[in-house]
Amino acid sequence: MSGFPGGLGVVILLTAIAGSLWIIFDIVIALLFYCIALLLTIIYHLRYLTALDRWLQIPVPTSTALPEGSGAWGDVFARLARLMRNQSQSHQQLSLALERLRRATSAMPEGVVILDETDRIEWCNPVAEQHFGIDSNRDVGRLITFLVRQPQFAEYLTTHNYSEPLTVKQTRHQELVLSLQLVPYGDKQKLLISRDITRLEAVEIMRRDFVANVSHELRTPLTVIGGFFETLSEENGISSDMSKRALSLMSDQTKRMQRLVEDLLTLSRLENTQNQVLEKSVNVSDVLHELYQEAQSLSAGRHHINLNLETDMKLLGSPDELRSAFSNLVSNAIRYTADGGEVTLSWRNQNGQGVFTVQDNGIGIDQAHIPRLEERFYRVDLSRSRETGGTGLGLAIVKHILNRHQAHLEITSEIGKGSSFSAWFPEKRSVIQQND
Ligand code: ADP
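A: This is the predicted complex of the input protein with adenosine-5'-diphosphate.
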């Protein structure tokens, strides 16, 4: 690379000539020459510097508008022109990539909104405009909660737990049901992805209604049949053992069907989002005292049952639902623990969170089954579940109830050693006593 024009080289050359002039003529001529040469050099540079400054002041400087330069300045301008051309090329490539990205996100069937760290809209695609009624010109910079006004969404946004999507009915279009998922990325920014699940939701409601209606219709005939079986089995006229056995079997199976119908009805009531959770103060200690008694009678002395009440914390929620969830866990522990085993019910305050645990030293569950236990009709051992009067819906009911109370179930188990089922309730549902 050559040096800058008028750099050290020129100064050395001028000094050498001036030195020679001094030797040949005298110092005055040498100094005169030196001053004139330096003045000309400065004028030369000033001319090109002014041209460069003028070019830099153009609003959009382009390589074609660059001034012509001679000598070393010609090289400088040529290098600048090359730099400009490269820059404009990468700018074009970037614009093309951006345009491709914009077209791809516009073609997405999901709505995409980019939110900044304060949850204000930075950008959105056309589908999101439709879903949320966003006007890109008007609403960029607005808070997303201004457009999605459902309180559950505001809560979802502040919890910072975005592992599960949130279903909301968009109030601007009554018929639109959206599944919303927040994805944090970059520097505290978030992507809000919206999916239209109106049709899926309609099918789900149909399924729920169908199961609820069938269960409801089966309830009365089953009660009648069950009643007759009971009366008949109490009759003394039935002599043959075979008939007695058949009657007892029919009676057991009818009871099983009744339990199934009741559990299905409970599940559809819980699934119905119109049924709001009651927000009553539930005295968990009282509920657990009752469940302890129930457990004793269910076990009929076959197990050793303990009750550990470490706190008198109450819970905000539905008394019936909480009782039903706890009762399912207790009855499972007894049903899946061999005679002579131990079952412990405990209630504790874990840093403000209420935790109900049922621990047993029963048959235990293989790790592979644990993630699926809360699915409807999922059983590790079908015959054992049936033998002990299970419907396969107990843990599904527990899961729904806990979800409705923003709680979650933690299961730890080891085959042959026993299991522990813990229901963790959020702090906001705790009602702490003064003396707690
Ligand atoms: P079920 O009516 O069959 O008991 P649940 O939904 O209550 O249905 O439980 C699902 C399955 O989880 C059960 O079939 C059983 O295999 C397993 N399970 C539940 N609780 C326990 C427990 N305490 N110990 C061992 N297995 C359990």
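The radius of gyration is 40 Å. The first strand starts at residue 111 and ends at 115.
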